[in-house]
Task: inverse folding
């Protein structure tokens, strides 16, 4: 039933002129809006579907990447050591069941083709912004709402807490600010207070996120704080996840299964669950408490039960 109700891994050619593809249309409308502007201020929200299942790709982007020549991530088709049993019952795992390497290659080629399409469309919008003389005073933010598994962990689409699904770009350009990048976890909750700060608008007191404007303007690294992710899918098949992510570790809590802990520095592909290792008991308990406190403060209906290490219980 899952493979019928959700977009599966099939790839198809968009059989119409590329200018009729909806993302191209959205970009064209954005460009017309910018060309029609004569006064500031303005706010423009540009939504693009690509790259998103179903993977229907127009030419020339459908032929941009040769599936046979792609280097796939090494964990495509593989399951991590110590993976909780609930993961195979989840929707992302069910969608990937029985998919061959060749099918994953076609998925990657189609996905990357849609990425190239989106990149080209956004480039045209930015070009129009510059040509109309509006780039200099405009704050530009690019992000996406989620990533997708494309075979990693033998999964497809989002609906899990692993990096392919939850690690997304956040690119922000503000007038007069030089280029810099930071490899620290930040949250979409930080977007609103950041934009309000950059626009010199007073932010409400009850926002959960932190402004990153100081990092954008002066280059000061963002606060080194944990970020939180959640997925509340179908409880009847154990599809509930909560995650606490720091620069080094990711802790995944499932109220119906064992926890997960991954070292994102030594194990960036998240293939070795460390939660059952007594050496990491303190890390697991600390991140569990951080997640429990966040859930309690924000009215989460999922109860964070105390994590007990079975190996520790058996020690004399």
Result:
């Amino acid at each position: 039933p899952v493979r019928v109700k959700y977009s599966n891994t099939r790839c198809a050619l968009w059989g119409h002129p590329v200018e009729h593809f909806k993302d191209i249309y959205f970009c064209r409308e954005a460009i017309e809006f910018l060309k029609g502007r004569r006064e500031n201020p303005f706010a423009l929200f540009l939504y693009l579907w690509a790259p998103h299942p179903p993977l229907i790709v127009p030419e020339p982007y459908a032929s941009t990447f040769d599936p046979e020549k792609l280097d796939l991530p090494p964990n495509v088709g593989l399951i991590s050591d110590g993976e909780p049993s609930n993961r195979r019952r989840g929707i992302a795992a069910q969608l990937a069941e029985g998919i061959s390497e060749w099918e994953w290659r076609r998925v990657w080629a189609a996905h990357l083709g849609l990425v190239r399409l989106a990149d080209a469309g956004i480039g045209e919008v930015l070009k129009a912004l510059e040509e109309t003389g509006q780039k200099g005073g405009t704050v530009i933010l690019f992000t996406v709402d989620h990533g997708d598994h494309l075979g990693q962990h033998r999964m497809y689409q989002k609906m899990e807490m692993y990096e392919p699904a939850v690690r997304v770009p956040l690119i922000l350009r503000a007038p007069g600010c030089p280029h810099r990048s930071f490899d620290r976890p930040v949250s979409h909750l930080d977007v609103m207070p950041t934009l309000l700060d950059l626009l010199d608008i007073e932010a409400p007191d009850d926002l959960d996120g932190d402004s990153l404007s100081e990092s954008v303007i002066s280059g000061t690294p963002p606060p080194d704080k944990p970020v939180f992710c959640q997925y509340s899918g179908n409880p009847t098949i154990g599809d509930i996840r909560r995650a606490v992510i720091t620069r080094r570790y990711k802790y995944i809590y499932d109220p119906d299964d064992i926890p997960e802990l991954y070292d994102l520095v030594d194990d960036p592909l998240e293939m070795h669950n460390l939660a059952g290792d007594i050496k990491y008991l303190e890390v697991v308990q600390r991140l569990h408490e951080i997640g429990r406190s966040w859930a309690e403060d924000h009215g989460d209906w999922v109860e964070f039960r105390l994590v007990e290490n079975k190996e520790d219980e058996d020690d004399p």
Residues 311-316 have pLDDT under 50 and may be disordered. The chain has two domains: 2-181, 226-316. Strands lie at 11-13, 55-57, 140-143, 149-150, 156-157, 170-173, 227-232, 240-245, 249-253, 260-263. The two ends are 48 Å apart (CA to CA).
